[in-house]
Amino acid sequence: MKKSATTQLLLVLFMLLPMISFAQSEGMTDEHKAYLEAQEKMKKQQVPDSLRFWRRGITPAINFSQVNLSNWSGGGQNSVSFTALVSAFLNYEKKKWSWYNNLDMGYGLSRIGTSTAPWIKNEDKLIYVEKLSYRIGEHSKISWLNDFRTQFAEGRRYFKSETTGVDTSQYVSNFMAPAYLTSALGYEYNPNKNFFLFVSPLTAKFTCVNDPILSAAGAYGVKPYNTFRAEFGALANAKLQFSIAENITFSSTLTAFANYETLDRIDIFSDNSLLFKVNKYVTASFTANMIYDDDIKITRGDGTIGPDLQYKHVLSVGITTVIGDKP
Q1: pLDDT given at position 32
Q2: Number of folded domains in the chain?
Q3: Are β-strands 248-259 and 228-245 bridged in parallel, bridged antiparallel, or unpaired?
């Protein structure tokens, strides 16, 4: 990976850290905490034996924003956007065995200008992560990790044509184009519920481009007119999550994959979020996502094409709730 890209990635990864020191909120009283712990203990005692080792929950959320201008001297355009998100998990733990399942889905659209302007996608993800583990020590596990990622709908890149000066778009992605499946067997260090580190020397990464146009162009690292690519290498995956205050949670996940055939080029995926819980149903969040994949060619601002750091951040306010157990 290029040094410049690595430097950019490290800088962005830590851009959220200063925000933590400024975050303040009132915490619960000791009496309130004791009451909640007692309630949780009573719930566990009432759970049937067949379900005692399971935890499951769903967290749906809807974010919405609108700008409406009328005779506004400062100028601007009307806009409307919405995003629907669903996060679900199903976990099993008994003695030395554990099985974790997590599903993240999101889809959003935005429109800028008049009611005749097109709707443009601003969020689209479908991610399923499964991990089967066997505990071999107090903080150690042997784990098998499976990570599947794709999107729901067609994706386009929007730009202004250099020849005509007209706004145009280019078809770049769709459902299962691309899709990524990573399967890894390795060692996991899990000292507490807030942090884990997973390292695997036995990792297979599969890329699928199930679209005739994109596969013919050799998009996302597949050979032209092929729809499938397999890579074998090593993987490192780490997650840090903790509560800054009673209603503020920070979460960061970093995944690095190195193909044994090209160890000098490392694929990096990073997801970071800062969640503010205003009340039982209203939340505000800031998310930052970064990807560097040497096989994905990006058209840069200067017109050159090649691998580069992909970055997206979203600041949103919306309505959310928790159904079942808390994550």
Answers
A1: 65
A2: 1
A3: antiparallel
Q: Is 68 helix (H, G, I), strand (E, B) or coil?
A: coil
Residue 97 lies in a domain: yes
DSSP 3-state of 213: helix
Q: Could you tell me if 98 and 123 are in contact, meaning their C-beta atoms sit under 8 angstroms apart?
A: no
Question: Would 67 be classed as within a structural domain?
Answer: yes
Residue 45 lies in a domain: no
Q: Identify the segments of the chain with pLDDT beneath 50.
A: 1-3, 5, 7-27
Q: Residue 254 domain-assigned? A: yes
What is the per-residue DSSP string for 36-71?
HHHHHHHHHHHS-GGGTTEEEEEEEEEEEEEE--SS
Please tell me the predicted confidence (pLDDT) of residue 193. Answer: 87
Residue that is written with structure tokens 């990570």 in the block: 147
Dihedral angle computed from the Cα positions of residues 211, 128, 222 and 289, in that order, rounded to the nearest 10 degrees: 100
User: How would you classify residue 164: left for phi > 0, otherwise alpha for psi between -120 and 50, otherwise beta?
Assistant: alpha
Residue-range definition of the domain harbouring residue 159: 3-19+55-324
